[in-house]
Every structure is written in C-alpha cells, then in structure tokens.
Amino acid sequence: xxxxxxxxxxxxxxxxxxxxxxxxxxxxxxxxxxxxxxxxxxxxxxxxxxxxxxxxxxxxxxxxxxxxxxxxxxxxxxxxxxxxxxxxxxxxxxxxxxxxxxxxxxxxxxxxxxxxxxxxxxxxxxxxxxxxxxxxxxxxxxxxxxxxxxxxxxxxxxxxxxxxxxxxxxxxxxxxxxxxxxxxxxxxxxxxxxxxxxxxxxxxxxxxxxxxxxxxxxxxxxxxxxxxxxxxxxxxxxxxxxxxxxxxxxxxxxxxxxxxxxxxxxxxxxxxxxxxxxxxxxxxxxxxxxxxxxxxxxxxxxxxxxxxxxxxxxxxxxxxxxxxxxxxxxxxxxxxxxxxxxxxxxxxxxxxxxxxxxxxxxxxxxxxxxxxxxxxxxxxxxxxxxxxxxxxxxxxxxxxxxxxxxxxxxxxxxxxxxxxxxxxxxxxxxxxxxxxxxxxxxxxxxxxxxxxxxxxxxxxxxxxxxxxxxxxxxxxx
Length: 477
Prior knowledge:
Order of helices and strands: HHHHHHHHHHHHHHHHHH
Number of strands: 0
Protein name: MFS transporter
Structural class: mainly alpha
Helix content: over 70%
Number of helices: 18
InterPro entries: MFS, MFS_dom, MFS_trans_sf
Pfam family, one: MFS_1
Distance between the termini: 26 Å
Radius of gyration: 21 Å
Subcellular location: Cell membrane
Largest sheet: none
Strand content: under 5%
Shape: globular
Domain Major facilitator superfamily (MFS) profile: 27-465
C-alpha cells in the first residue's frame, strides 16, 4: 500500500516544507491521537480498578475481566484491520475505528454493572482493533523510510503525554467527582482527533484483494481465544494434569492448523511469511516479551501503591506521572542513542538495564520516600521507552509495499496478546503470593516480569551488529 500523492497529500507536504510542520511531524502527531486515547484509557482504568471494584462490590480479580475483555477483543479482530484498510482505504477505516472507540467509551461511563462494563469494553475493542495497526500503516506509508525514526518519535509523543495527563486527572476525578468521567474524557479527544485526521491525513491507495480470508479469520480468532483462555485460567490451574496437558496440546493443535492455512492462503488474514525479514522477526519477539512485562507492570504498580502501601489514587498518581515523564524524556534521548550506538547496541543496553530496574519496585515500602519511587520510575520508563522506540522502528526497516500492512497486523496482534498475558501473569503470581493487600506478594510478581524482560534481552542478540544502518544517521528530532 503506497501513498496516492493526491492534492490533499501535496498540500500537507507543501505547507510543512522548510518549516517546523513537516510531514514526518504532522502526520504522526495527528494519527497518534488514537494511540493517545488508547493509552489514556488503559492507564486510567488500571488506576481506577480498586475504586470501581469497591463501587460494584467485586474483587480486583473479577474486575480484571474489564481489562482483558478489551485486549482479547482487539487481538481477535486486529487481523481484519489490514484487509479492511487495503480494501476500503486506511483513512476511512481509521476514522470509523475512532468513532467506535469513542462510542464504547461513552458506554463504559454509563455502565451500571460489571457485565455492562465488560460489554462496553468489548465495543471499545472493536475500535481499538483497527486504530493502532491502521494508524501504523498510515504512518509508515506516509513517511519516507529514512525519516522513520523521526516519524516514530513524533508518533509516540502524544501517546507519551497520555500517561502524564492520565494519572493526576484520574486521581482528581475519583476523589472529587466520579470514576465514570475517566471514560467520558475520551469523547472530546476522539472528536478533535477525527477532525484532524480528516483534515490533514491524505487517503492512501486501496488494494483490490481477492476476498476476505474467512477460514483464516476463524482459525486466528480460535487460536488467540484458546491461548488467552489458558493464560486466564493459569493453564487450567487446579485441574488434573492430564486435562491441563490436553488443554495445552489443544492450543498447539489449533495454532498449527491456523499456521498451515495461513501459509497456503493466497491472501491470508495475517501473513506470517513477512517474518522472513530478520529485523521484523527478532524485534517482534523481543518487543513482545517486553510488552508482556509492561502489561504486568501496568497492573502491579497502581495496585501496590493503593492496596499494598495504602496510597490514595491522587497520591499514587504522582509515581505514575513520574513514569510518564521518563517516557517523555526518551523522546529526546532515543534518537541520540540510536545515532551513537546503533539499534542493536542501544536495544541490548536498554533491555539489560530494564531488567534490573524492574526489580527495584519490589523493594518499595511505606517508609520509602515518594521522591525515591519517582526517581526509579523516571529512569525505568525512560530506558524502556527508548528500547520500544528503537525496536518499533527497526521492525519496519526492511518491509515494503503491502508487507507494511501485514507487519502492522502481526505487530498489533502480538502487542494486544502480550498486554493481556501481562495482566493475567501479574494477577496469578500476585494471588499465589498472598494477594494485593500483602506487600511481600509483589516481590514474586516483579521477579516474574523481570525474567520475561531478560528473555527479551536474549532475543535481540541474533540481530546483526550494524542492523538498521540506513536509518541510524537520520535519527534526529
């Protein structure tokens, strides 16, 4: 899928030529309004879980379904995004996705029970399934490959602002208004974002595809649901071992059938053949492991601060703001690191340091000064975000044409599955260690996600030393 080069696209290019508002800045920022909503929503819900659980009279474990319902819906439906974008146009699909997400947000705010909240999160998932991958398609197709590092940096900037704005806003809303407003704030953001996309993002060329891969869609969905079910139940924890082994074998069988179908289909719903590019393959594996760990951290830290250490939502938001400020700092640090160290060395360095910093929150106690917690989370977030910027950019260094859409779909599938797995892994380990009200239980949970981060570090090693050299020296802001 390539840019049309139409009048609207030319207008943006001319308006930005020679000035600050260049294409590699304008298009990523406008498209990232969707990512802003997605991350704002996720960080807000994680912060508000204890309050919403008390409101509905349920446990954190029961309410966790509101988190996993969204990520599972996105993971199941995201394979359709590439086909829809190619068939009906990326900009049109992107705008519809944003409208669905905004509608789902309104329904979340109006929910009167946990089942209604879960159903509304599923509706949000219909929009989220298309927003992120189609947004990536628009970004990669609209920005020159040598400018992709800069494009990705500007694309992540609004998304980084969301966690900065989210925690204090959530804390204020919970303490002085109502938790329902954490969903209603998506409405003005979404409307402004849709107007900006319609105005500044040019249509991309549509591709007439032979037909929708319905068998592949069903098999992909079945594989994702089966895998997430095993994670949700702790691999059928509490059941007899023969049943647990049969369950794992069943997931493997469904996955094998799907992969066989995907390799034979003329236009598969998710084309794994694009993984022949080593940069995409190893970056995807490594970032997937890191995102599992990040999903666990997103759940653990707010619970530790509020339930383990007794902080109010507003007090806990200070630590979450610090983490977001660290991510914002990476926006300026990462391009310098890429230019000086290269992609592989920077990713190895950031990943290794992240392993150590992931273990530090396990030592937090009621006597730990909040300034120390903030300093740790600033460093942790800055280094991890630098790793993600390098890894996300490197994933697209070798893909071209229609492969961009397939790569974006695979990236989005792995991203959503990883977050869901992270939520569930953190919950299972936390419950096994004594529950969220026991501060010592968090030690085991942080240890588990640190091990995953270490595995992600090892996955980077097969990359050649000078990978991504064609983009390295263009990594400036």
